[in-house]
Amino acid sequence: MSVDEILDYDSAFEKYEPVLGFEVHVELNTKTKMFSSAPNAFGDDPNTNVNEVDLGLPGVLPVVNKAAVESSIKIGLALNCQIAETCRFARKNYFYPDTPKNFQTSQYDEPIAFDGHLDIELEDGEVFRVEIERAHMEEDAGKLTHMGGAAGRIQGADYSLVDYNRAGVPLVEIVTKPIVGAGKRAPELAKAYVAAVREIVKNLGVSDARMERGNVRCDANVSLKPIGQEKFGTRSETKNVNSLRAVEHAVRFEIQRHAAVLEAGEKVVQETRHWHEDTRTTTSGRPKSDADDYRYFPEPDLVPVVASREWVEELRATLPEPPAERRKRLKAAWAYSDLEFRDVVNAGVMDLIEETVAAGLKPAAARKWWMGEVVGRAKAAEVEPGELGITPAVLVEVAALVDGGKINNKMASQVLDGVLAGEGTPEEIVAARGLAVVSDDGPLLEAIDAALAAQPDVAEKIRGGKVQAIGAIVGGVMKATRGQADAGRVRELILEKLGVEG
Amino acid sequence: MAAITRDDVAHLARLAHLEMSNEELDRMAGELAVIVDSVKSVSEAAGADVPATSHPIPLNNVFREDVVGHVLTVEQALSGAPDAAENRFKVPAILDEE
User: Fold this and answer.
1) Angstrom distance (rounded) from CA A4 to CA A76
2) What is the C-alpha to C-alpha distance for residues B65 and B68, in angstroms, rounded to an integer?
3) B82/A contact by beta carbon, under 8 A
4) Are residues A112 and A224 in the same domain?
5) Tally of structural domains, chain A
6) pTM for this one?
7) Would the CB atoms of B68 and A39 count as touching at under 8 Å?
8) Which terms are listed as keywords in the entry (chain B) (predicted)?
9) A283, A1 in Cβ contact below 8 A?
């Protein structure tokens, strides 16, 4: 296989500007399939979630899943689309063993949703509008496993095995209009767009939106045109780019590859490309040819879907707040800085902080607890912060123990260790581990006397007005009490003892 | 008469995975032209006020509630398969596509 030349990224933009287009497939999380009542479930034993409709046996009659239509309409509305008053399904005809009927039931010239847009906010806050051409309903295909040959690759395989559990799972395919003007930020925009679609369908609750399971899959179209030219160049379509990072890398690579082809005075071939995560490159797939002559025609076994305006408005009323607006609202309400808020979002604790604030903690305190105590532990355990086992309620309880002076921050951390070790509630752990702050002044005064005696020069400095030197004495006391003293109270007592105003 | 060439028929035959002899291609070109003309004359009969029809019965929104129904056993599912292995359908190596 020949290795493609690529041009240096910045050089590509001296003469050319990229045009992007995306097809994002979203698997819906309905209980059953698009046209059959077989379960829509991931990870079950092969061919156990199929019935005669999914296998395309002769004489069967598909029936549309109402919930899947409703989810599709919701997606259309969330993408600011028009919803078709009436639309049809169509057969897309092709032979491939992942499609047992030899056609995929899809929509052709009458998608359920069309003419929408999505405002994509890039990391620095710049907003880029992506126009949505259409969103249509269709069904997923089965899963092929190539056997023999090298490492499951299709090249050199002896045969393939097919599992039709995924065949017929409801899909919504979201197609953008050509995206012009992103310039050098095209790869970044590509990633942000797919992230935004994923976030929207997850927020709507219509998809599990797990890219590693293929719930959200992206085909990325890239072409270059000389700067200033109206007419688009020839595009390539990189298939199945299935992580956010890969979307960014694939667009970047294709820009560089196209630029090198054009710079060499050659023509870009219109073709599908395969993405390789290991080398972060694409390789040539099949050229677009009459293999794409799908001979669509209206599906005779299904009747039109009519979306009355009442039905559409009912569904619109159920839509949750859009994720981007929600973020803006929470950031303002919590009075976080840009950086603080970005860290919170990137750490995946925004929803958790919202719950924690609702449970009674101040936003600043909620951020401190999640970012300071939970995020690092979750990272070490390689789980999401919400899956670690520390709930908003636990943090509220621990924070109350600290605020009430019962424990200090260091003990709070031990209490959380206890919670994760399954030792009970924070209160129980404080009792069981003997973690109460020493609040009886007697032992503290003894420790203070000892600390002052051990560091007479420091004591002298404090008497002389250098109050900032007090840290050394406080530290001595904390050490002597094995961290069980309330540092604030210790400080007060030292000042009192030395007759100095704090 | 609609112009359906032999090449058109050969192209369709290839897309439909049909093997056709030269004689069959010639005959089908003529027959398809008649069919296309017939459809065209029906189209002419329908005025601009007649919406396109994809189904003979004027029905819409025939839906199913999202409730899990029956499935086949693996044995049933594979019973019509020409070949199977590891509870899956076994198909020849696919060489020309992704």
Assistant:
1) 38
2) 9
3) no
4) yes
5) 3
6) 0.80
7) yes
8) ATP-binding, Ligase, Nucleotide-binding, Protein biosynthesis
9) yes
**Whether residue A325 sits in one domain with residue A298:** no
Nearest to A258 by CA among A226, A223, A286: A223
Residues A272 and A187 in one domain: yes
Question: Per the CB < 8 Å rule, is B71 touching A49?
Answer: yes
Read off the CATH number of the domain in which A461 is found: 1.10.10.410
Q: How far is A17 from chain B (nearest CA, A)?
A: 29
Tens of each residue's pLDDT in chain B, 98 residues: 678 999 999 999 998 889 999 999 999 999 999 999 998 898 888 888 887 777 888 899 999 999 999 999 999 999 999 999 999 999 998 765 44
Q: What is the chain B residue with the closest CA to A35?
A: B64
Going by the DSSP 8-state scheme, the letter that residue A465 receives in this structure is T
What is the predicted ipTM?
0.90
Q: Give the three-class secondary structure for A41.
A: coil
Query: Do residue A262 and residue A370 come from a single domain?
Result: no
Structural domain including A134 reads 9-315
Is B20 within 8 Å of chain A by CB? no
Q: According to the model, what pLDDT value does residue A1 have?
A: 47
Q: Give the helix ranges, DSSP H, for A337-437.
A: 338-346, 350-358, 363-369, 375-381, 392-403, 409-420, 426-433
Q: Does one domain contain both A217 and A203? A: yes
